[in-house]
From TrEMBL:
<dbReference type="InterPro" id="IPR051532">
    <property type="entry name" value="Ester_Hydrolysis_Enzymes"/>
</dbReference>
<dbReference type="InterPro" id="IPR013830">
    <property type="entry name" value="SGNH_hydro"/>
</dbReference>
<feature type="domain" description="SGNH hydrolase-type esterase">
    <location>
        <begin position="33"/>
        <end position="228"/>
    </location>
</feature>
<dbReference type="Pfam" id="PF13472">
    <property type="entry name" value="Lipase_GDSL_2"/>
</dbReference>
<dbReference type="InterPro" id="IPR036514">
    <property type="entry name" value="SGNH_hydro_sf"/>
</dbReference>
<feature type="compositionally biased region" description="Basic and acidic residues">
    <location>
        <begin position="267"/>
        <end position="285"/>
    </location>
</feature>
<dbReference type="GO" id="GO:0004622">
    <property type="term" value="F:phosphatidylcholine lysophospholipase activity"/>
</dbReference>
<keyword id="KW-0732">Signal</keyword>
<keyword id="KW-0378">Hydrolase</keyword>
<feature type="region of interest" description="Disordered">
    <location>
        <begin position="262"/>
        <end position="308"/>
    </location>
</feature>
<feature type="signal peptide">
    <location>
        <begin position="1"/>
        <end position="26"/>
    </location>
</feature>
<protein>
    <submittedName>
        <fullName>SGNH/GDSL hydrolase family protein</fullName>
    </submittedName>
</protein>
Amino acid sequence: MKKRIFLYMTAVFLLASSILPVKTYAAGIQYVALGDSLAAGQTPNKEIGASYTDLIAFALQQTGQLSSFSKNLAFPGYSTEQVLEQLEKKKARALIQKADLITISAGANDLLPLIQNDAVRGMLSYEAIPVAFSLNRVRKNYIKLFEQIRAINPHADIYAMGYYFPYPHVKEGQKPSVAGQLEILNKIIEQEAKKAGAHFVPVADQFGTNADSLIPNPKDVHPAPAGYLNMANSFLEVYAPGSPPIPQSVLTQLPAPIPFSKLRSGQRAETENPAAEQEKAKETEKEAEETSSTASEPIKSCKRGEYV
């Protein structure tokens, strides 16, 4: 169901070309984002909006480097195992094969479900042994993930995103132990990225352990738009050192996020009228093919959470 719901993210795009000037050229970068809810753009209020991936695409677009962007391989709730399973699918492999730039967010959904967050009392708890096993599984899956991506596309630049501490609202004494587990997760991602010839993007320092303004919901681990902006700028610091950061003013121009309730209602409507949806899907695919065939055309808002 997650995949079907994600197909309704058609209204979630960064900024239309009518709002901001677009500079493109034929040999531009094809950017593919894969991973979990952070790559997809989940908000603290169970919505899907603009992610750090959209903001990265915007930055590349504004400098005339972007040819296409897709976050069709980013799904809320996905673990490293599920991200790996994605790569077995024909459509996913086709996207990866054409990519020049790939970002990955994976690992949090292997770890965070094992941490109990008592938002009322401001307390965290977890069992050490299951967490240790989970982190070891993350390492093994990242090894496979990099191997499979390289087998599909040996030439793409790969950037693995780190994670921030997602519990700023708990009591101070509750933070160090869980922050330590997040640090181990980040070290694993960094180590395996370097072994695979990929890049690691640290984001933890941009948030710290008291970023309640960036993670405003005590019961939710997802960032506000300003948090996603921090992540995008962290990427730019690694990708293009010395480049100007994306300005805060961009946040005022983002499209409104789509509540999960509307995504689910759209999914139910699709189920009730499958024939019409199949016809619509065929038309969408045809439009996407026609649009992607001319890389020099201005970037437009596209179907299924994709920029072409």
